């Protein structure tokens, strides 16, 4: 991928536009593929090493690589970086996310505080520099005009490129490239309202970027003067010669104050004789067509390549030029022009003046709109490649050089003449002299040149005929030299030439053509008829079998093609034709016409394929089947529970199914012709109108088409302004084919709305009940703690016998029981109070930097005496590399205390408990408490995590059933993750994981 491919990515484009440091990394975070200038400073990359084709080694890559697993799991994360540039601060917060359709790229962005604001021109310079196009032909334009371009870009191209860029932005595309062998023109949206245009011309970029030497005054005049041709061509006869006194007049005009020079305009009359260069390099040109499809401008470079008369098409319609020059026979380019959309990659063949060759021309275009969105035509680029010229059977270039008028092939419309100064009727062509035509056309010279060209097949044509013969399995009769025709051929259908003095002798050419064509076309499974000029030259055996004529003479005597083909399908309706056979019967056949070259002459090849019409019984059966299908579909629509409406192009109702009629309560005499918006409540009409507008625009909303919720009026009075009943509906619209209107699917969602309302009320009631419960528990817990503390305190005083001895030892035992029961109830009350606070969201947490090492060491020291009494070993593993976390110190201490106390309680004598911390590769910190106790099953784990539930597993002492639920709630309050894994008879493992955002950097 090139730097420009990275810059046009939406996420990269937005981050680069707001001045952030941006870097595109590989998916494994091991390489920097591209970054902007701020990103290079952040990552400490050498200047200029920002492309994917160069190694980019940054000292920050190892630190960024630590987030690899987190990014892979979550596709988005944040991390703290220590930039090498001290001006960016000691640490910056970087955002890392996965981008690209297949997730093959990662994007690193850092929002720079206090970044200096850039002007639009400075921003354009930076964009071109980051795209590595400073030495290329490139520029940045906006929807307001040209912004900035490289010094190598010619100034005269600025206005055109600005217009093209504005059209590209209006089209709403992200990237467009028009490529050919000459080069490429690329458009890329690099910011909101900005487009970067790159002209990739290899011959232009290969030039060394060296400033020309300074010129003196005399040298400057010589350099600016146009180069002198070595030989001046002979002026045309129609061009008047300069009088002897004209130089003096010209000198007087030159001495006067010069007027501003007008832009150069192409004029075939004033141009010298054209010398075609068939081996020239490809030439790029610019062309424009107005809103009516007429050529409005054409670069002079095009005329210099194909000839002034051949390029004299300004003011003429594209379709007329295509008809005369014989390109775009399928009408593909004409259809693209009618669609008024961007297109490229279309090639046509354009005649080269003075030759019998045509040059390929590649075209691409963008539509042009005014500020008020009025269509103004097309602007486009083209490349003409004269070196790839092909043969022109009609030799239009020779006719253009002679000045004779061109005429399109015969059609049902009046003949269209194409002269060098416009299209005229036949009568006007006779009255007016053709622009640039000689007084005496060199008819003899043209005839001699044409006879030489027709003397034999070209090597390409001969090879083509040999390949056809080999494919059909016929003998190679084209090996000996082909005889030349005696006379010139009759006038081609597309040429208007002087009438010959005598009729051409076609009889000499006919035996050869028929002889060769018989070997080629008799083996084909098609009926073939070949016509040269006005004469039927050949027909194969299948043709006579289809038409039931004995031979071509019989067909000629019967009336020829006028009798054979009675009707043919019109344009766009297929290629079927009605032919009349020799016995008078009518047959329907598919007719295909194409031009072929036989012995250097243009012939019309007609191929017929017989088509059988279905019998009346089959047609009747098809009609019955269609009628049944219509009835079945109508039954399905009437059975559907959703209402379906059909609207015409003006959004008026023309059909409803049974469900829609029942829903609205309308009969056909009431709703036919009724506007669809009249069926809706006033507050929903604008919503429906906007919905139809989005579907009509064929934008992204039309593709998604997620429907709308509206309110409809129902009842017989709804259509006549009465007091109807309103119901909520969900409406989905779809466009019918051929512009027949709209299909509307409606669904009654009144029950859904009621169910949604009931769910909202039930949720509110549940939340209120939970709030009341939490408040009740908090109040009860608070009221119980005071008397419990008094009971425990008095029992301690009595057990200490500070006011005198107690008479019996059993009283001391009772006092011990009172103290244990009081502490148990007090612990239960405290846990209830903590849970109620957490559920009510009123627990007070103070987040600060907490060292898990200190907390775990303190808790282990506190629980060591109890573990010793139970003969349980408690160990701790606390690596020094574990960083502190952001948490509430008091709750973390309570979490560790609950976990270790629980482990001591359920671990038999001789067991051990291990409390450890761990710093993962993804940046998370984990607190683990593992014991070798009795363990639990998965079902028992679920019971242990349920408040007021205890597992009857033989642990020491009595519990409240709130230890693990309270611990899990406090872990989640500290933004950490709680997990427990246990196996009966092996022990239990509890993990508390603090995610990377809650971990402080080392």
Care to count the β-strands? 37
Assign a percent range to the helix content: 25-40%
Superfamily (CATH H level) name of the largest domain: PAS domain
Strand content: 15-25%
CATH topology of the largest domain: Beta-Lactamase
- For the termini, the CA-CA separation is 37 Å
Number of helices: 32
Q: Could you say which structural class the secondary elements and strand pairing correspond to?
A: alpha+beta
CATH class of the largest domain: Alpha Beta
CATH 2nd-level architecture of the largest domain: 2-Layer Sandwich
What's the story with the biggest beta sheet? Answer: 6 strands, antiparallel
**Average pLDDT, to the nearest integer?**
75
Number of separate domains: 7
Low-confidence stretches: 204-267, 409-417, 419-461, 473-513, 570-574
Shape: elongated
Instruction: Output the radius of gyration.
Output: 46 Å
Which tags fit this structure?
1002 residues; alpha+beta; Beta-Lactamase; 7 domains; 6-stranded antiparallel beta sheet; 32 helices; 37 strands; elongated
Describe the structure.
The two termini are 37 Å apart. Helix 27 packs antiparallel against helix 28, helix 28 runs parallel beside helix 32 and helix 29 runs parallel beside helix 30. With 1002 residues, the protein is of the alpha+beta class. About 16% of the residues have low confidence. The protein folds into seven domains: 117 residues, Beta-Lactamase; 72 residues, Beta-Lactamase; 159 residues, PAS domain (Beta-Lactamase, 2-Layer Sandwich); 157 residues, PAS domain (Beta-Lactamase, 2-Layer Sandwich); 132 residues, 2-Layer Sandwich (Beta-Lactamase); 83 residues, Helix Hairpins; 155 residues, Histidine kinase-like ATPase, C-terminal domain (Heat Shock Protein 90, 2-Layer Sandwich). It is built from 32 helices and 37 strands.
């Amino acid at each position: 991928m090139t730097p420009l491919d990275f810059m046009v990515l939406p996420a990269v484009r937005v981050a680069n536009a707001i001045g952030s440091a941006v870097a595109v990394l590989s998916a494994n975070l091991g390489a920097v593929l591209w970054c902007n200038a701020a990103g290079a400073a952040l990552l400490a990359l050498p200047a200029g090493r920002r492309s994917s084709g160069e190694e980019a080694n940054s000292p920050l890559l190892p630190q960024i690589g630590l987030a690899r697993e987190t990014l892979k799991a979550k596709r988005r994360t944040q991390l703290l970086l220590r930039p090498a540039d001290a001006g960016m601060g000691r640490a910056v917060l970087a955002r890392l996310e996965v981008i690209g359709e297949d997730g093959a790229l990662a994007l690193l962005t850092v929002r720079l505080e206090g970044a200096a604001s850039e002007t639009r021109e400075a921003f354009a310079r930076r964009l071109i520099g980051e795209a590595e196009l400073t030495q290329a032909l490139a520029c940045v334009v906006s929807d307001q005009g040209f912004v900035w371009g490289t010094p190598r870009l010619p100034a005269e191209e600025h206005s055109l490129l600005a217009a093209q860029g504005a059209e590209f932005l209006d089209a709403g595309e992200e990237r467009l490239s028009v490529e050919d062998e000459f080069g490429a023109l690329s458009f890329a949206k690099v910011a909101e309202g900005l487009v970067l245009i790159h002209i990739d011309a290899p011959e232009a970029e290969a030039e060394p970027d060296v400033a020309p030497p300074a010129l003196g005054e005399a040298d400057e005049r010589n350099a600016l003067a146009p180069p002198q041709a070595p030989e001046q061509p002979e002026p045309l006869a129609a061009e008047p010669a300069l009088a002897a006194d004209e130089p003096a007049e010209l000198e007087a005009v030159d001495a006067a104050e010069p007027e501003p020079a007008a832009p150069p305009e192409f004029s075939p009359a004033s141009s010298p004789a054209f010398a075609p260069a068939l081996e020239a390099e490809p030439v790029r040109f610019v062309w424009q067509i107005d809103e009516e499809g007429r050529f409005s401008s054409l670069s002079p470079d095009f005329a210099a390549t194909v000839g002034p008369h051949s390029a004299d098409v300004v003011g003429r319609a594209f379709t007329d030029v295509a008809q005369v020059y014989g390109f775009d026979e399928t009408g593909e380019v004409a259809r693209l022009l009618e669609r008024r959309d961007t297109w490229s990659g279309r090639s046509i063949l354009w005649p080269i003046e003075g030759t019998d060759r045509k040059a390929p021309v590649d075209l691409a275009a963008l539509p042009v709109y005014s500020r008020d969105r009025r269509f103004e035509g097309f602007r486009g680029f083209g490349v003409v490649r004269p070196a790839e010229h092909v043969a022109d059977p009609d030799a239009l270039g020779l006719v253009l050089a002679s000045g004779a008028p061109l005429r399109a092939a015969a059609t049902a419309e009046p003949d269209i003449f194409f002269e060098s100064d416009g299209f005229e009727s036949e009568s006007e062509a006779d009255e007016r002299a053709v622009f640039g035509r000689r007084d005496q056309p060199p008819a003899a010279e043209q005839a001699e040149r044409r006879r030489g060209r027709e003397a034999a097949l070209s090597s390409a044509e001969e090879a083509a005929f040999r390949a056809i013969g080999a494919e059909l399995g016929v003998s190679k009769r084209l090996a000996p030299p082909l005889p030349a025709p005696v006379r010139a051929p009759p006038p081609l259908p597309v040429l208007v030439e002087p009438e010959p003095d005598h009729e051409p002798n076609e009889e000499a050419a006919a035996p050869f053509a028929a002889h060769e064509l018989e070997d080629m076309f008799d083996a084909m499974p098609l009926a073939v008829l070949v016509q040269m000029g006005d004469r039927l030259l050949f027909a194969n055996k299948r043709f006579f079998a289809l038409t039931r004529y004995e031979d071509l003479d019989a067909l000629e005597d019967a009336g020829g093609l006028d009798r054979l083909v009675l009707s043919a399908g019109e344009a766009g309706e297929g290629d079927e034709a009605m032919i009349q056979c020799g016995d008078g019967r009518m047959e329907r056949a598919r007719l295909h016409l194409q031009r072929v070259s036989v012995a250097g002459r243009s012939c019309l090849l007609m191929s017929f394929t017989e088509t059988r019409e279905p019998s009346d019984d089959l047609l009747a059966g098809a009609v019955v089947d269609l009628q049944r299908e219509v009835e079945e579909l109508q039954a399905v629509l009437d059975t559907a529970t959703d209402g379906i409406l059909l609207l015409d192009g003006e959004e008026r109702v023309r059909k409803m199914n049974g469900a829609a009629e029942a829903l609205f309560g309308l009969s056909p005499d009431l709703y036919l012709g009724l506007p669809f918006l009249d069926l809706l409540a006033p507050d929903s009409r604008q919503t429906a109108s906007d919905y139809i507008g989005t579907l009509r625009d064929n934008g992204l909303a039309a593709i998604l088409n997620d429907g709308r919720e509206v309110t409809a009026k129902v009842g017989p009075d709804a259509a006549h302004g009465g007091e109807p009943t309103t119901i909520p509906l969900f409406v989905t619209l779809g466009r019918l084919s051929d512009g027949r209107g709209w299909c509307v699917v409606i669904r009654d969602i009144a029950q859904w709305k009621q169910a949604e309302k009931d769910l909202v009320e039930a949720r509110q009631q549940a939340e209120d009940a939970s709030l009341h419960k939490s408040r009740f528990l908090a109040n009860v817990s608070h009221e119980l703690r005071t008397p419990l503390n008094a009971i425990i305190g008095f029992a301690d005083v009595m057990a200490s016998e500070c006011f005198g001895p107690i008479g019996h030892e059993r009283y001391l035992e009772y006092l011990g029981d009172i103290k244990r029961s009081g502490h148990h109830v007090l612990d239960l009350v405290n846990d209830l109070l903590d849970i109620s606070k957490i559920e009510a969201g009123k627990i007070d947490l103070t987040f600060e930097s907490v060292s898990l090492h200190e907390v775990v060491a303190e808790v282990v020291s506190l629980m060591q005496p109890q573990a010793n009494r139970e003969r349980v070993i408690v160990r701790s593993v606390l690596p020094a590399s574990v960083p502190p976390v952001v948490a509430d110190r008091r709750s973390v201490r309570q979490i560790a205390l609950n976990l270790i106390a629980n482990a001591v309680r359920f671990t038999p004598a001789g067991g051990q408990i291990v409390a450890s911390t761990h710093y993962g590769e993804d940046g998370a910190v984990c607190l683990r408490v593992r014991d070798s106790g009795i363990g639990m099953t998965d079902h028992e784990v679920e019971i242990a995590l349920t408040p007021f539930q205890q597992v009857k597993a033989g642990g020491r002492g009595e519990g409240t059933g709130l230890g693990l639920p309270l611990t899990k709630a406090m872990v989640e309050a500290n933004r950490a993750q709680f997990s427990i894994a246990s196996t009966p008879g092996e022990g239990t493992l509890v993990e508390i994981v603090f995610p990377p955002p809650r971990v402080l950097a080392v």
